[in-house]
Amino acid sequence: MILPIVAYGDPVLRKKAKPITKDYPELETLIENMHETMYGAFGVGLAAPQIGLPIRLFLVDTSPFAEDESFSEEEQEALSSFKRVFINAQIIEEEGDEWAFNEGCLSIPDVREDVFRQPKIKIEYQDENFDTHVEEFDGLIARVIQHEYDHIEGILFTDKLSSFKKRLIKGKLSNISKGKIKIDYRMRFPAQKKKR
């Protein structure tokens, strides 16, 4: 089932998400719905806060990047097969010289900006079977994980922009939170929630 994606301005996007346990209600269905929602919106990642749940869960599927010919064959291969569920993730380490990449977010449609992030991460997480992993990732896979991880920490990519850039997109962000935007996937806007 495709769920509505929560828009910029909703307080759930600013909450530090809570860990979950194996007995979280209907977790398997939730993960399936999140995948369907992410693919329906042509995303490469989706975090639970983006569907209104302040829990430490996010998914990543970098396969859409595999068609980008600016990446090496090796990178394309890695991107094409990377699909993970991250539960209760904790980034242990981030290292290397920061690099810029143009990021967007399903909760902030039509806003894309260069964001600087470190290229390597070490992360501990549980998969959908609650098996624990400690892994290292780099490049674009690390970046997508960092972006989704920020969501469970209550951080948005726009927080990482310069104050000048933030001023430039202020009007766009205001319109998004009011639902004054054309999008081709289901969204829930803060203004709509208050009317109920």
Question: Any descriptors?
Answer:
196 residues, alpha+beta, Peptide Deformylase, 5 helices, 9 strands, 30% helix, 29% strand
Verbal overview:
By secondary structure, this protein is of the alpha+beta class. It has a single domain (5-185), classed as Peptide deformylase (Peptide Deformylase). The protein has five helices and nine strands; from the N terminus they run E-H-E-E-H-E-E-E-E-E-H-H-E-H. The strands form three sheets. Strands 2-3-4-7-8 form a five-stranded antiparallel sheet, sandwiched between helices. Strands 1-9 form a two-stranded parallel ribbon. Strand 7 and strand 8 form a beta hairpin. The longest helix is centred in the last third of the chain and has 16 residues, at 163-178. The mean pLDDT is 95.
